[in-house]
Amino acid sequence: MDLWACPAVVTGAASGLGAETARYLTEAGAKVAVIDIDAEGVQRVADEIGALAIPCDVADARSAEQAIAMARAAHGAARVLVHCVGRGHCNPIVGVSGPMPLEDFRQLVEVNLISTFNMMRLAAADMAGLQPLANGERGVILSTASVSAYEGQSGEAAYAASKGGVVSMILPASRELGPLGIRVVGIAPGLFGTQTLFDMEKNLDSRLARQIPFPHRFGDPAEFAMLVLHVLKNVMINGSVLRLDGGYHR
């Protein structure tokens, strides 16, 4: 896909993977709308890169519908959706004070899984009405999972379940939307230097990075953004979840 003047939406764009992805897309010439529940943070990123800021709770149907409508009015229907929203915490199922509050589990499913489907359904509806490009493509939906979907650790049952749902969604969604010329792809990052990692790993230190076969460091959000751009440009990548983890298996 040629990204020049291409309408694109990036969620979770106030920081971390989303902010860096939005930066790379604008540098590639895309017309980017950045979405996040953090209104001040997303406006700051938008001002830095020349994007449209839209505060939004992407797990809420009405809020997301309004955000997509605002992006459409400004730039046209998006051919690219990169969904980078994610929240994590490391809580045991049963702790010293008793069972994990059910609301903690529900919140992770809302933020990580329901928001992914919510944005996917809305973006796909717009993409389906677009004229196909020369290769028949109408759009690309890229969602962010996690290696915890495959190898969740003790205390990550809720987080792993929410991200596992994202992984399970990619292939059937690609099969359903493929005939419309819409590709669906997932990226499962490993240990990246983002707030989500810092929230989950309370005792973060260099020993954790040294467990990565190579390179022996946390991932840089720019490396995530570079993979996003490759996926968008390579039409044969579809229906897969790509691990981006330096070979890290926990």
UniProtKB/TrEMBL annotation:
Keywords: Oxidoreductase. It comes from the Bacteria. Pfam families: adh_short_C2. InterPro entries: NAD(P)-bd_dom_sf, Sc_DH/Rdtase_CS, SDR_fam. It is an enzyme of class 1 (oxidoreductase). GO terms for molecular function: 3-oxoacyl-[acyl-carrier-protein] reductase (NADPH) activity. Its EC number is 1.1.1.100. PANTHER family: 17-BETA-HYDROXYSTEROID DEHYDROGENASE 14-RELATED, SHORT-CHAIN DEHYDROGENASE/REDUCTASE. This is 3-oxoacyl-[acyl-carrier-protein] reductase FabG. It comes from Candidatus Accumulibacter cognatus. The lineage of its organism: Bacteria, Pseudomonadati, Pseudomonadota, Betaproteobacteria, Candidatus Accumulibacter. The gene is fabG_6.
